Automatic annotation (TrEMBL):
Pfam families assigned to the protein according to its UniProt record, in alphabetical order: ParB_N (PF02195)
Protein name: ParB-like N-terminal domain-containing protein
Gene3D superfamilies attached to this UniProt entry: 3.90.1530.30
Lineage: superkingdom: Bacteria
Stretches assigned to the ParB-like N-terminal domain: 4-101
Annotated source species: Methylocystis rosea
UniProt xrefs under SUPFAM superfamilies: ParB/Sulfiredoxin
Amino acid sequence: MSAQTIALSQIDASDRLRPVDQLTVDAYAAIAEQRLNEGLSPLIQPIIVRPTGVGYKLISGAHRLEVLRAIGRKDLIVGDDVVIRAESDDGARDSEIFENLADAGLTALDRAIFLAEAKRRYDAKRGEARGRKRKDQQIQFDKIMPETGIILSERFSKHAAERVGLSDSKIREAVHIAKALDPLVIPQLRGTMIEDNQNELKQLAELDGGSQRKAVAAIRGGEVKTVAQARVAIGVDKPKTDDLQARIYADLLDRWSKASNKTKRQFMADVGLVYAEKDEKA
């Protein structure tokens, strides 16, 4: 009995939250080729799709799908290359979000985007439940975090923290970053050193959209390496001066205030001056 297959061309992988990284595809394609040479299935974990009536919609595994395409796989073996699972549009999006959030290789930028979408969907579902006035569903109201002013459900952040393995505060921060980043900036962040640095992304998100675009342009152009440096380069912050003489002067004043009268007299004599003593202990 021959194995069931579906054509790769029947799979729709559009409308994904996370773009495919070609370098990742190339690396995994080499591994897939090696597995084939050893008589194994090219993928360690199959992709997951759902039937749509006219074909299939990808649920999870966009990079793996491109790996199969890269190695010339046209017909996918059900069970080895692909798993078919019946899911609604809503359920498929939830699966995409949380299966990606479980990926250890997810960048800080993509993690923030997935968490923000998960939070948006959570709020929408909770709103629907409120509208139905279901008594069997515990609803916790959003609270305003005083340190940020962000309205965020504690229940969501705790649930997400358990799923992702981050603290509540990091979850809240990531959601805020995704909401505050200019949509035009997000594609430009990919491939930069700050893409996987949540602290850098947080600093960038504090800027307005125009300043964000200028800052990322400066980083991509090699003019600067960090957001702090970019803020100076685009004129948002003034450069910090390191005046050696000013530091020496401040140090002298500090030491003078701690010196005894005897030490002060000796110092003044050494520089050819006379110390006018005050009523202080020698």
